[in-house]
Structures are given as structure tokens and as C-alpha cells.
Design a protein that fits this description.
With about 350 residues, the chain is an alpha/beta fold. It contains 14 helices and nine strands. It starts with a helix and ends in a 20-residue tail after the last helix.
Length: about 350
């Protein structure tokens, strides 16, 4: 502190008296608030490295609104009741994250909707919030909500799969890129996405816990939705295991996989350059290829389906390939995907 500053304080003291000494900070440790003793001993150790967070604020619960794009669609009432009781007895242990919306005239939750709902149920007037200076972009907001939900309390399987797909679409990611971003095995992402191709009734059974997600994934390999539902019914009525389902699916698919490479004359077309294939009519009268070849370093992969290769056909083939890759090169024990550098053909 400069001598000029000390002289200015002394002049103020002489004018207003000794009552000003404490508020002006004389004989205080720098940084100690007026009226408080200098930190010493355990207090000094406790406060070392502690900095106030200027981006946090206490906001009225009524001025906070949920994010309409939150990936979680359903909240367990019993879990919210338990959290409300915890807030009443133990207080808020973790800030929620919000930003201000001029359009809504309120703060919008980025993460922490469970705590907000519990605070309303507990009758709390305010919540401690981490303030963002601007709305996060869609991908960042969804990623933050998804990661937080997966860590704190898993989303229902189909909700999680929908959030995975939304993240992939908003970022233009492959399943490998999403798995890397979320630090999970690529196969887990593929299995989850497979649930979105199931009939709505089976998706509801999965979310209600009546059908295991991995078993539902295996059922999804059947082409006809009616067959999928029928096999799911047998899982409930006969107690079929996942291995039983795999065997049933293989048996059902066997007649549809002829050994001969001959194709029906009515569906054939002459091949063009690059391994073009015969085709079949798809939705809306358009024709779908019945065979498709993909080249990779040192080899070629061909997919065939007499009825035509639609999106579900490619997804089914991708799942089979990933399963085969996992059998040859299992994910690491920590759940991380295989190193794509080990084999160029595994790179995304």
C-alpha cells in the first residue's frame, strides 16, 4: 500500500473518528472483510485456494423454466419425492445450470431439472444456479443433459437411444464418434439405436422394464413387426432367455438366406460399373438395390437381400459386423472402444 493512500486514510480518520478504522481495513490482513478477524491457523488453511464464484446466483424457483428439448421425457415420482425430502433436510448440494431467455422472460434449465422439480415439490423458494452468459448451442445443451442424466440416473433405454440419435444428427457424428465423445463402447451405442427400429409397443415394454434392452435388440433382427411382437410375447409367456431369442431369430431367418447366389428373374437387372446390383421396388414405387458391395483395404464386403436393401437392412448388417468385430477384438475392460489405429478397417 502506498504512503499517499495511508495519508488519505489518516485524514479520513481524523475527520470521521476511529469508528472508520475497521471499515477502512487498518491492521487487517489483505483480503479480510471489514469486521472480521484475520484468518489464522485452521481458518487460514481452510480458506486457502478458495475463490468466490461470480457466475453463481440464488434465483427464485418460479423464475426458472424447464428446457422443452430436455431428452428426459418422464420423471419417476418416487425419486422426485426422495430428492424433495433430501432438499428439505440436507439442502441443495449441487447447483443447477441456467441461462436467461428473453423470449420466455425466465431462466431456462440446461441441467438440473430433477432438482428443480424436487424444489417445487419441497416448497423451496429459491435455488442456487450456475449462470451461463449465453444459451448453449443445441449440441452442447443436449450433450450436457445426456451426460448428466446418464451419470446421475439413467434415462429409460428408448429415451437414451433417442438422445443418442439426436446427438449424432446435430453433430454429424458416426456411432464411433459418439461413443468416443461419451466414453463408452461403440457396441453399446449400436445396441441402443437398434431399439428405435422396434414397434412402438415393444419400445414401451422396454421402457417399462418388461423386456430387456439386449433381448429386444435381438428381437429387432426379425424383419416383420408382427413376428417381433409375437416373439416378445413368448419371452413373457415362456420365459425365453436372450440366448433362446437369438436361436429363434436364427431359425426364422434361415429360410430367407438361400445358399445359392441365383436371383429371381423378375427382380434382376444388369450390373453396371462398380458392382451395381439387381433391384426391387421400394416404398413409393422406387426401386431398392438387392445387392451392395463395399470395398475396404484388402477386401470387399457384399450385402444381399432379394426383397431389396432398405435402411433397416443396412442397420442389421452393421450390427452383425460390429458384433463380429467385438468378438475378435473385445472392448477394453473400462468400456472404451477398440483402438481404430490397430486395424484400418475399424476406423470410422
Amino acid at each position: 500500500m502506498s504512503a499517499a493512500s495511508d495519508k488519505a486514510k489518516e485524514r479520513t480518520l481524523s475527520k470521521y473518528g476511529e469508528a472508520m478504522r475497521s471499515s477502512l481495513g487498518f491492521n487487517r490482513t489483505p483480503g479480510t472483510p471489514a469486521g472480521m478477524a484475520p484468518p489464522s491457523g485452521s481458518v487460514a488453511a481452510r480458506m486457502a485456494g478458495v475463490v468466490n464464484d461470480r457466475e453463481a446466483a440464488v434465483i427464485e424457483v418460479s423464475r426458472i423454466a424447464p428446457d422443452p428439448d430436455q431428452p428426459r421425457r418422464a420423471f419417476d415420482d418416487e425419486a422426485i419425492d426422495r430428492l424433495a425430502e433430501s432438499l428439505r433436510t440436507r439442502g441443495q448440494l449441487q447447483n443447477v445450470v441456467v441461462y436467461w431467455s428473453d423470449d420466455l422472460g425466465s431462466y431456462v434449465l440446461v441441467s438440473g431439472e430433477r432438482r428443480w422439480r424436487a424444489a417445487r415439490k419441497a416448497g423451496l423458494p429459491t435455488l442456487r444456479c450456475k449462470l451461463l452468459d449465453r444459451p448453449p448451442d443445441e449440441a452442447d445443451r443436449l450433450a450436457l443433459q445426456l451426460v448428466e442424466n446418464c451419470v446421475r440416473e439413467d434415462l429409460k433405454p428408448v429415451e437414451q437411444a433417442a438422445a443418442f440419435r439426436a446427438l449424432m444428427e446435430s453433430n454429424g457424428w458416426s456411432t464411433r464418434q459418439l461413443a468416443d465423445a461419451l466414453h463408452m463402447a461403440q457396441a453399446k451405442v449400436v445396441y441402443a439405436l437398434g431399439l428405435l427400429d422396434l414397434p412402438e409397443e415393444l419400445r414401451r415394454r422396454v421402457d417399462r422394464g418388461e423386456l430387456a434392452p439386449r433381448t429386444a435388440y435381438e428381437i429387432g433382427r426379425l424383419e416383420r413387426p408382427d413376428d417381433q411382437v409375437a416373439l416378445a410375447d413368448r419371452v413373457s409367456s415362456e420365459g425365453l432367455t436372450r440366448d433362446d431369442v437369438i436361436a429363434e431369430v436364427r431359425a426364422a431367418q434361415a429360410p430367407a438366406e438361400p445358399v445359392s447366389s441365383a436371383k429371381p428373374a423378375s427382380a434382376s437387372r444388369s450390373k453396371g460399373r462398380g458392382g451395381a446390383s439387381s433391384s426391387s421396388k421400394g416404398r413409393g414405387g422406387g426401386r431398392l438395390p438387392t445387392s451392395k458391395s463395399f470395398r475396404f483395404p484388402g477386401g470387399k464386403l457384399t450385402i444381399e437381400r432379394p426383397k431389396g436393401l432398405d435402411a433397416s437392412s443396412y442397420r442389421a448388417a452393421a450390427r452383425l459386423l460390429l458384433e463380429q468385430a467385438d468378438r475378435l477384438d473385445p472392448p477394453a475392460s473400462d468400456g472404451s472402444p477398440p483402438d481404430p489405429g490397430a486395424d484400418p478397417s475399424l476406423a470410422a
